[in-house]
Amino acid sequence: MEPIMAKPVLSDPIALRLPVDVLKDIEIIAAASERSRSWVMVRAMRYYLATEGKDVLEIERARESMRLGRGLITI
Q1: CA-closest candidate to residue 43, choices 19, 8, 17, 75
Q2: pLDDT tens, 5-43?
Q3: Measured CA distances, 32 to 23, 25, 36, 46 (Å)
Q4: pTM
Q5: How many domains does the chain have?
Q6: Could you list the residue range(s) of the whole structural domain that residue 33 is in?
Q7: If you write DSSP's letter for every residue of 2-67 in order, what string do you get?
């Protein structure tokens, strides 16, 4: 028996305009991996947030912590 996985909580739908070449690549990857375009885009965004976006997020969280008087947080 396979474990039951909870569905993630999703936001309201958003509209996003992409360069045609980027969308084409997303569609190729989605078809090759038998996944939806949404799945591919979420994976790409999560990767960005874990790499390039990580520093920005950490800085913003530290600013919020300071604003709330908690001092700097260590990660």
Answers
A1: 8
A2: 788 788 899 999 999 999 999 999 999 999 999 999 999
A3: 14, 11, 10, 20
A4: 0.70
A5: 1
A6: 20-67
A7: PPPPPPPP----------HHHHHHHHHHHHHHT--HHHHHHHHHHHHHHTHHHHHHHHHHHHHHHH
